[in-house]
């Protein structure tokens, strides 16, 4: 029996391949776990920042990490980077833990909080400096990463002249210098203008699909994260409350009829009393949501006209990440 362990284009690993008596080749297929947390807890004084986190990221995932400010996202990323040591529990990278984590981190790229750039230096000079820090001897790698983040044409321009989006892309370039298999990104698209967000999404999609890089990314822009991520983890007050794939998200909720009116509370009660619609939700943004299966859209519009109820907007919504998150943490009232 030959034991093989090698990278496949789909990030699968083949283990324990062997030939049967009739010459048929068989093997056990499994997906490599890139990152895993077991019972991860972080306490600062009397405050619990992370509470018993059980979490895993598989090869090929673009893992969207979602939570409010102070939920513990950055703390977990800093633990992955080795900048913070957990109070309790453990993590593993590529199956390595304990003393082996230091060597495993050489295959991880990080952009946590604001990228540390030298504004008086050019992009190339910044990358040359970090190449020495990371022990990257291949000078051609600087050109490669500048190409990936679309900064090659301005590589000799001082960083002080860069826009915010360009600085973020340079931060990604630094994180890519060591040719990582796993990329950890803390809020890389927050603060970018629409064109910058699209550019960043293209970069991350290219890295995931063409280079096979597994990505952990946090962001408050949930609509954008839904376009990018293949799996989502929701953290709330230090607890990982849910993990769900993008496919499961789409199946998780039926389409909703969304109604905007200047009197949402009054209209919500009318719908319950006169149309006997039991499930009516008033969202934090003032929008009323009704399950599409409980009422035909045409009948609802006719009812509003007959009752003289002023309507500012009415549309159908597909399941979306923002609504799922708000429901999960109790962000709506019924």
What does this structure look like?
A hairpin with a 2-residue loop joins strand 3 and strand 4. The chain has helices spanning 73-81, 101-104, 123-134, 140-148, 164-176, 194-210, 222-228, 246-252, 264-274, 297-307, 321-328; strands spanning 12-19, 25-31, 33-44, 47-58, 62-66, 88-93, 108-111, 182-186, 214-218, 231-236, 239-245, 256-260, 281-283, 288-291, 313-317, 332-333. Helix content is 32%, strand content 29%. The chain is an alpha/beta fold and 334 residues long. Mean pLDDT is 86; it is low at 1-20. The protein is built from eleven helices and 16 strands. Helix 4 crosses helix 5 (164-176). It has a six-stranded mixed beta sheet with strand order 7-8-9-5-10-11, sandwiched between helices. It has a five-stranded antiparallel beta sheet with strand order 15-12-14-13-16, with helices on one face. It has a three-stranded antiparallel beta sheet with strand order 4-3-6, with helices on one face.
Offer a quick outline of the entry.
With 334 residues, the chain is of the alpha/beta class. The protein has three domains: 1-31, no CATH class; 33-250, Rossmann fold, CATH 3.40.50; 254-318, Alpha-Beta Plaits (2-Layer Sandwich).
